[in-house]
Design brief:
This protein is α/β, with parallel strands linked by helices and 205 residues long. The protein is 25% helix and 33% strand. Strands 2-1-3-4-15-14-13-10-11 form a 9-stranded mixed β-sheet. Strands 6-5-7-12 form a 4-stranded mixed β-sheet, with helices on one face. It has a two-stranded antiparallel sheet with strand order 8-9.
Length: 205
């Protein structure tokens, strides 16, 4: 199995790679369309701004390669921005077009949400509750703690792609799953044993 972590200039590449190694697998860092074609599984991590990240993906001619990888049915795991890129658009900075692999949009947390004042970004440990069975989450108890760092979250047009939610003065999308596409808004590589369990599950898909 060839598992690759996409380097598009933004993301915790080494942290993700080390976490994959800790669960007994190897992962190579890739950065070109040709390298993506050789993979059996792809992880797209991300930290920072959606605008910069999607611009880098397009400048490096990676957009079509990512879409093609997903289209042939190979497992994809998006982490944080790697989840947000899946959707049609983000309201970060200005309306920005995503990869349109899943229909929907990415919106910002309001500092006043559900009549509560919240801090933005949403940063630190919080629990997830899944809505349906998801191979990525098999073996974890409900209300497992994971680590988040984000100011934006996804609003899928089709809510059935949401496999787990998190509550931050109201529920939001924490994970998505459709066919061969999985993604987490939180960072498994920073989520200690729960995160390692999730990454292990991905290597076994």
């Amino acid at each position: 199995m060839m598992l690759g972590i996409l380097d598009y200039g933004m993301g915790n590449l080494r942290s993700v790679q080390k976490a994959i190694q800790r669960v007994g697998s190897d992962a190579m860092i890739v950065s070109t369309p040709a390298e993506i074609q050789t993979l059996d599984k792809l992880i797209l991590p991300g930290v920072g701004a959606f605008t910069d990240g999607i611009a880098n993906i397009r400048q490096m001619n990676l957009e079509e390669a990512i879409r093609d990888f997903v289209a042939v049915g190979k497992p994809y795991l998006g982490i944080c921005m790697g989840l947000q890129f899946l959707f049609d658009r983000s309201q970060e900075d200005a309306p920005n077009q995503g990869l349109s692999i899943l229909p929907g949009r990415v919106v910002r947390f309001c500092e006043q949400r559900s009549n509560q004042r919240i801090k933005v970004p949403h940063m630190g440990w919080n629990t997830i509750t899944w809505q349906r069975d998801d191979p990525l989450l098999v073996g974890l108890p409900q209300e497992s703690f994971v680590y988040f760092v984000h100011s934006f979250y996804a609003l899928p047009d089709d809510e059935t792609v949401i496999s787990a939610r998190c509550d931050y003065a109201g529920a939001f999308c924490a994970t998505v799953w459709k066919n061969n596409v999985w993604a987490t808004q939180f960072h498994p590589e920073k989520s200690q044993q729960v995160g390692l369990h999730i990454l292990k599950n991905f290597t076994l898909l």
